[in-house]
User: What shape does this take?
Amino acid sequence: MKNFLNPNQCRYLASLICVLGAIFAFISKIKFGMNSIHPTFIIGILIIIAGFVFGFIKARCPHCNCLLSFSTKGDPKHYPNCGGKLEDDD
Ligand SMILES: [Zn+2]
Assistant: This one.
């Protein structure tokens, strides 16, 4: 199966999904109060979990299959774990 995003892009997308989930949960807490757990808060948490699962599955090095760090800053030219080149064209 051909990936439409390279692992580094998947890493960014996974981070984005987690942030969106956090925003969702945060808005829920503002809107419905800190002491109640509203279904929208649960949905926000589920979005965060989905982001982590997506990153865990997709954000992997194609050379050694190791998991890429979500927290790596910038746009590295090589995978940090094995030093394999990070290709943009697949
Ligand atoms: Zn690797």
Observations:
- The mean pLDDT is 84.
- The longest helix spans residues 7-32.
